Amino acid sequence: MFNEGSLDEKVALNDLDLEVKKGDFITVIGSNGAGKSTLLNIIAGKLIPDDGEVWLEGKNITSLPEYKRAAYIGRVFQNPLAGTSPSLTIEENLAIAYNRVHKRTIKIGVTNKRRQEFKEQLSLLGLGLENRLNAKVGLLSGGERQALSLLMATFTKPKVLLLDEHTAALDPARAEVILSLTKKFIENYQLTTIMITHNMQQAIDLGNRLIMMNQGKIIFEATEEEKQKLTISLLMKEFEKIRGTVSDRVLLG
Amino acid sequence: MWKGVSMSIAIFGSIESGLIYALMALGVYLSFRILDFPDLTVDGSFVTGAAVCAVMIVNGFHPIVATITALFAGFIAGSITGVLHTKGNINPLLSGILMMIALYSINLRIMGRSNLPLLQEETFFSKLLETWSPIDQVLKSVIPFTPKTWSVVFSMLLLVVVIKLILDYFLKTEIGLALRAVGDNEQMIQSFSANTDALKVLGLGLSNALVALSGALIAQYNGFSDIGMGIGMIIIGLASVIIGEALIGNKTIVKATLAVIFGAIVYRLIVAFALRFNFFETGDLKLITACIVVLSLTIPRYLDKRREKKRKLLRRQELAQKRGENIASTKANL
């Protein structure tokens, strides 16, 4: 389909080969220890594979350090506290996110022009944060911080967005809010996304591709058409077919 | 009467030296608070600043050139601590201690001996005094209390304010924001494409540059550079930061840097008062400093706790009273 602007990922150790096309929204499921987070960490450069390569848009980025790679990659972590800087204000945090793609200089981080831009972006969250630009992020609730993290990771339009169970630490209502915001941003910015989730219904409902991992391997993959017919029980059957006898407890981790 | 005059001279002296030490305290604030890096290099780099400046002055350099060179020497010392920590993966405390020990020998090498007097030399302050003396004459006629000169207070106040403003500005720049995030959430700032290693090296360099600048000015102010003048400097810096934060607060950067400067002066005043007790000797200074730090760490927490307790007690009484009134009114209705 799109050979240009594609991201190939290969971990030879686990013999994992994943090709992500531009605009793909892949959901990843699998039991704990299946290697889902490792996969994201290798893409982000937090971990360097023993063997194998990471390619982004025709460039081999395997040896590119994390902070350099971060210019192309947006991340939201499971821990709502991980994606923001608590003693900095909301607008200062957004300024830091702005500099993910723009080189940092000794110019003022939050200019009036940027403040207006930040305000507009924050109003997209619908949480009223646009009126609290000077509030320290440490004062926000977990849900608010995760919403801010999501905005910070996406508004600079990264080439790849990595979501690592980013709603898992929130209560169901907040998780729903963050999830609908996630959908909105991914559609608005046409972001290529890989999302880890433990919620199978979520994995089926969202995105255009689904992969199931186990022991560092992709054991099942569903394309867009296949995905529309998928149900949780079908997924369970797929899993059992490959793994032999496995209880859903294992899969749901 | 004589005692009153000597007291006011002591206070004036405290403000003078407090302003100079405030530069060192700002450096400590940068490493301790902004980078969250307990950097013990300070004990060494303070002397490095003094030593470089003193040697250059003795060798005929202009005092201002010598002072600026001292600032760069401090920057290099701090950067090396940063490299030890980031590239050598050495724990922050240990890399600071290693650098401090190494600097002891280096400082001796720079000075050539353990004490270098500057009394016969042209220093920044002696030069300043020449141009300033007409102003002192004027001030003498306006203000009844006359110290030897106002030049030190005015020049250092100006320098400290300028450096505070530069620091405030810097910490709001794009690089400055990233630097603050490094001490706050390192994982996060890395995922926003900041080179945390480089930022730490930069931060520690700037911190120790300020410390060395302070050391260079103290050497010129006191008229000598001494190998032992940096002992306990980190604790003095920390005391200034903590006292300032307790008195003024640290809600914003502008407030926090002001607090540090204020804290440095208050620390000098406390020491000056303490030394007026005949019981204390000058050798007790380090002990007094340690006690000040302990007290300024514990007292605010104790006061907070008591205030909270009082607030809760009041609230309980209020509620109890309300309940009592309710009961009373129901009874009346019966």
Give a verbal description of the structure.
The complex is a heterodimer of chains A (253) and B (334). Chain A is an alpha/beta fold and 253 residues long. Chain A is built from ten helices and ten strands. In chain A, the strands form two sheets. A six-stranded mixed beta sheet of chain A has the order 6-7-8-3-9-10, sandwiched between helices. Chain A has a four-stranded antiparallel beta sheet with strand order 2-1-4-5, with helices on one face. In chain A, a hairpin with a 4-residue loop joins strand 1 and strand 2 (16-20). The longest helix of chain A has 18 residues, at 172-189. Chain A is globular and about 60 Å long. Residues 1-6 and 246-251 of chain A have low confidence and may be disordered. The relative contact order of chain B is 0.17. Chain B folds into two domains: 2-276, ABC transporter involved in vitamin B12 uptake, BtuC; 285-334. Chain B has helices spanning 2-34, 42-58, 63-86, 92-111, 124-142, 151-170, 174-184, 186-191, 196-222, 233-248, 253-275, 285-333; strands at 115-117, 224-226. Chain B is 79% helix and 2% strand. With 334 residues, chain B is mainly α. Chain B has a two-stranded antiparallel sheet with strand order 1-2. The A-B interface holds A 44, 65-71, 73, 75, 77, 81-88, 92, 95-97, 99-101, 104-110, 152 and B 169-170, 172-178, 180-181, 184-185, 187-196.
Helix segment tally of chain B: 12
Largest sheet: number of strands, sense, barrel closure of chain B: 2 strands, antiparallel
Instruction: Outline the low-pLDDT stretches of chain B.
Output: none
Structural class of chain A: alpha/beta
Could you name the key traits of this structure?
heterodimer; A: 253 residues; 6-stranded mixed beta sheet; 4-stranded antiparallel beta sheet; 10 helices; disordered C terminus; B: 334 residues; mainly alpha; ABC transporter involved in vitamin B12 uptake, BtuC; 2 domains; 12 helices; 2% strand
